[in-house]
Amino acid sequence: MAQFVNAKEDLVKEAIDGLLACSGGALTRLDGYPHIKVVYRSTGLPV
Description:
By secondary structure, this protein is α+β, with helices and mostly antiparallel strands. It has one helix at about 10-20, and strands at about 25-30, 40.
């Protein structure tokens, strides 16, 4: 089985980075990154 992950330790960090890159600015991360892994909407309006 082929693996697409470079390192297990970086899996969550890379997934969050990819999600934020694809969100078009609608999502942002909470301060404290990379230790605190929280993503939230940038605006208070529904998406």
